[in-house]
Amino acid sequence: PRPVILDGDPGHDDAINILLALASPELQVLGITTVFGNVGLERTTRNALITRELIGADVPIFAGADRPLVVPRISAEAVHGKSGMDGPELPTPTRGAEAMHAAHFIIEQVRARPGEVTLVPTGPLTNLALAFRLAPDIVPLLREVVWMGGSTDTGNWTPAAEFNALADPHAAHVVFTSGVPLTMFGLNVTHQAIAHPARVAAFRALGTRVGEFAAVLLEFFAEHHRERYGWEGGALHDPMTVAWLLRPDLFVSRPMHVTLDLTAGPSVGRTVADVWDVTGQPKNVRVATAVDADGFFALLVERLGRYS
Ligand code: BDR
Ligand code: CA
Questions:
Q1: Is 170 a catalytic residue?
Q2: Angle between the 209-229 and 41-54 helix axes, to the nearest 10 degrees?
């Protein structure tokens, strides 16, 4: 199996990504690292712990950055609720996170497995940026980074910027300019996979605790998307990262030159993607542009259905 580290800010869609990865024998999840984002670090870590206990998994969890590198912290309670994972009942976790900082865990694992580890961030890129700055030697030792964030077109937190990019644009800049093989699942592709009621029903029809948990998460997640966009459900952003590792055939992608807008102003945090190669600059990012949404949801339901 392929060794991966899941780094995120659970988060409804981050939690479903964790469930997808841990159900998949093609992957060896070395650890889960958490970062501030949708809500504060304490809550995102707690939500990761709760998700792990839901399925009785043994994977270690490491808390990381509690704030961005430079800009003030933002959060997304409006989308994910006060807990960051509102909807299902959230029990008090019985086991805590490990003592090591997420960035140190990433460094340790990458050094131990040169050329093998894939990082799968689904939140602000702060933990990766910290690791890359603390230990630049790990950058060429990584197999790749597969991130949910950014967009080739419009944003969702400002007209120009997607949440994960805006939450720490400088960290994203560090990763985008590092030279690491990077695949980006931005809003331009995640908005193609809406968890509308028939898709939610397929999770519920599993008739399991995990199926019900996913369905309730998606129902809560739908509320914001209904109000803001007039859609029938939420865009299931984060699980596209792990889905890509399992089934790249479900996606279309293309290498592009992408830069982060760091200038203070209305476009800060924008991932400026050279879709038509007008600059001729080196293509530093593989950008996902299309998804087979039915195939994506079928994969999710099949994998989450593996939990009894
Ligand atoms: C991203 O922001 C978060 O709210 C989601 O978990 C996802 O990672 C979408 O912009
Ligand atoms: Ca997320």
A1: no
A2: 140
Q: What is the spatial distance between Cα 243 and Cα 254, in angstroms, rounded to a whole number?
A: 17
Give dist(CA 98, CA 161) in Å, integer: 33
pLDDT in tens, 208-257: 999 999 999 999 999 999 999 999 999 999 999 999 999 999 999 999 99
pTM for this model (two decimals): 0.98
Structure tokens at 174: 């560090």
Count of CB atoms within 10 A of residue 72's CB?
Answer: 6
Ligand 2 centroid from CA 4, angstroms: 17
CA dist., res. 116 & res. 239, Å (int): 21
Q: Side chain identity at 212, as an amino acid letter?
A: E
**Euclidean distance between CA atoms 13 and 20, whole angstroms:** 10
Whether 115 contacts 153, CB under 8 Å:
no
Pocket test for ligand 1, best of 6, 83, 125, 148 (most atoms within 8 A of CB): 148
Q: How far apart are CA 43 and CA 35, in angstroms?
A: 10
In 113-162, which residue ranges form alpha helices assigned H by DSSP? 126-134
Is 37 within 8 Å of 9 (Cβ atoms)?
yes
Q: Are 240 and 246 in contact (CB under 8 A)?
A: no
d(CA 269, CA 124): 11
In whole angstroms, give the CA distance from residue 51 to residue 93: 9
Sort strands 118-121 and 2-8 into parallel, antiparallel or unpaired. parallel
Cα distances from 289 to residues 14, 133, 246, 257, in angstroms, run: 20, 30, 17, 14
Q: End-to-end alpha-carbon separation of the chain, Å?
A: 22
Q: What is the pLDDT of residue 283?
A: 98
| Protein residue closest via CA to atom 10 of ligand 1 | 163
Q: Indicate if ipTM > 0.95.
A: yes
Residue 219 is given by DSSP the state H
Strands 285-291 and 251-256: antiparallel
280 alpha carbon – ligand 2 mean position (Å): 31
